[in-house]
Design brief:
The structure is a homodimer of 220-residue chains.
Chain A: H1 19-30, E1 32-34, E2 47-52, E3 58-63, E4 66-71, E5 74-80, H2 85-93, E6 95-100, H3 106-114, H4 122-126, E7 130-132, E8 139-141, E9 146-158, E10 161-174, H5 186-189, E11 192-195, E12 200-210
Antiparallel strand pairs in A: 2-3, 2-6, 4-5, 5-10, 6-9, 7-8, 9-10, 11-12
């Protein structure tokens, strides 16, 4: 629990009129419980990282540590332990894909996270289909509604994990999840997230607001 | 659109029995539309990055490019353009927080993404409360249900964005979103995601499966 005495803001001198604010701060902070140094955030993704090994056998693993990391070049980062087959494969091919599973592939995606490509043909076990990517030497998961083709451009050692930064060369989306104007519909993609503290997967809900617009009311 | 001729897998020689699989591959791939080199993935977060400037004035910005990047040390990465006030502030203090807004703070979070801390006191404009973090010299957003305190441990230049890697020193969660056993309940946290292709925010849905368990059925 937090010490109430620490809960003042750091705006410098405190005008009398802000005493009420500080009291509110104290109250708010006392309502938070410390969980320690944990890897938790919301939402966290479930990415399926597709690779070929040196003999061109397809593999994929589930990874929740990752996300978009730059707009130019458009890039995505995924963190992988050196013990994983995927680690070796990316080094071999300098390429990977990120397939975004829908809830229809939830159990398969989970299996891709617990089994090892070193001794298991995960595609064969699950029945999912490895499809050779168009621009890079890596397979994506054919059944996944959204797939991202990446060329390795950077490796960053971050302790237990190595972060692989991939330049996004293409994003491919199933025709079946597009609307009449060709725009991807989230409710049809049905991606899911990973709750690291509860070890659960959860679906996506409805649209709640328009980005770069919902906050305009605070401008004046 | 993809060229059907490219759609064979790379498992090497193709046994006759796999011709059907390849036909399925072709069909699946033809159903995907290319969107080009875009920064899209699902889900993407809406992180509020809290910092103090050199005069200890609190600021926060919304960032969707980021995620957990290592388990040990527990770390989170957020990508920020050098033009942002947050960039300067992190360099100054070597610290930042990541506050996870609930849908209750959706409009405020959006404003934190479009306004600049260089000329706007975003906390004052929105009425949200900057609370000094316990372990680092940065403020978090008091109203957010989950907050993460980070010490800067690495900067990685990735083109338009610089990735700041923060070691997670603590995760704090509102008592009001915990269950009777003290576990965080996603349906009470109510975080939301960012749909980069549609420029929309969307809520989270119900739990759809147990991680490290749902895929066991494929083991044998």
């Amino acid at each position: 629990m937090l010490n109430v005495a620490d809960r003042v803001t750091s705006r410098g001198a405190v005008p009398v009129g802000r005493i009420k604010d500080l009291a509110v701060n104290c109250q708010k902070s006392r309502m938070k419980r410390s969980f320690g140094a944990r890897t938790a955030a919301y939402p966290l993704p479930v990415f399926l990282i597709g690779t070929y090994d040196a003999r061109n056998r397809p593999d994929a693993m589930a990874a929740a540590w990752g996300g978009i990391c730059s707009s130019d070049p458009p890039s995505i980062a995924v963190s992988i332990r050196p013990t994983r087959q995927t680690y070796k494969n990316i080094l071999e091919k300098k390429a990977f894909t990120v397939s975004i599973p829908s809830v229809d592939q939830m159990a398969e995606a989970d299996f891709f996270g617990v089994a090892s490509g070193a001794d298991t043909d995960k595609f064969e076990k699950t029945g999912l289909t490895p499809v050779k990517a168009e621009f890079v030497d890596a397979p994506f998961v054919g059944e996944c509604p959204v797939v991202i083709e990446c060329r390795l451009i950077r490796m960053v050692e971050l302790g237990a994990h190595t972060q692989f930064v991939g330049e996004i060369l293409d994003v491919k989306i199933d025709e079946s999840v597009l609307d009449a104007d060709g725009k991807p519909v989230l409710a049809k993609i049905r991606p899911f997230g990973f709750d690291a503290l509860m070890s659960e997967y959860y679906g996506t809900g409805p649209v709640v607001g328009k980005a770069f617009s919902a906050g305009r009311k605070f401008k004046d």
